[in-house]
Amino acid sequence: MGIGNIFKMFQPKDKVFFVLFEKVAEELVAMSKEFHESLLDFDINDDTMLQHMSDYEHRMDDLTHEIFVQLGENFITPFDREDISHLASGLDDIADFMYASAKYIYLYKAPLDPAYTEFTLLIYKSCLEVQLALKNLNDFKDPKAVKESCIKINSFENIADDVLSQAIVKLFETNDALLIIKVKSVLEYLETVTDKAEDVANTIDSILIKYA
């Protein structure tokens, strides 16, 4: 038996990691889309959106757990085990902070700041690019497209930084201490979601540099 055939024997036949990463990306896109659309027509007395965000977050936890299970069961992986671990954890962080943002919007019961939907749109766009980057990372079929998605995610994070600073300036002009505390907390959670997306983009970019 040739060395090529021996190598193939140890390869995951179903490319399980890319399958799982694509499922994670699908969940993130659906979660961020619902988050954004729900805030466009928000009702503090209807917690359907929060329940859905919790459901998404739990499914993400299950998928992340499965990725780590597969790391323990597969001898050959598509790239470094450490990179797979960082990527899985980073993707899960996006969902965790998205859910936290939604939770505190409901818990604080403060009026919605206009910046909330600016953030959720940036989050949704970031998740779309994460999905595209992971799709094109599969078998490293389109490194250029992966790089372009990572650049876009980084640009969305930069925009989010500006949205945060401008929103906080306007918030302090209200001179309402309790409102400032509540809304500033939510704004910072939302901005952190874009930070986590940027972390994922940086991890993907690092993988690309190593293997493409």
Automatic annotation (TrEMBL):
It comes from the Bacteria. Gene3D superfamilies: Phosphate transport system protein phou homolog 2, domain 2 (1.20.58.220). Pfam families: PhoU_div (PF01865). InterPro entries: PhoU-like_sf, Put_Phosphate_transp_reg, UPF0111_domain. Belongs to the UPF0111 family. This is Phosphate transport regulator (Distant homolog of PhoU).
